[in-house]
Model the fold of this input.
Amino acid sequence: ADYDIIYIGFPIWWNSAPRIINTFIESGDFAGKTIIPFATSGSSSISNAEKELQETYPDLKWQKGRLLNGATKEDIKKWTKK
Done:
């Protein structure tokens, strides 16, 4: 309840977020929050996972996510300060 922006991170599995991410979203109250996904993947982009999450939970306020393969601590600091 104390946060306006929620980052949700996960590994991409076959172009999708793992099902546990759906369970997490469904068990929380994210109304009025901005949700920003981030992920890692060996071969997939984050775009399909983002699309699926946005279609499954259209009432949530989604912001563009990011694939963080190889990201440094500085990269992440810059990204989260936007």
Remarks:
- The chain has three helices and four strands.
- The beta strands are 5-11, 34-40, 61-62, 66-67.
- Helices lie at 19-27, 47-56, 73-80.
- The CA atoms of residues 12 and 18 lie 7 Å apart.
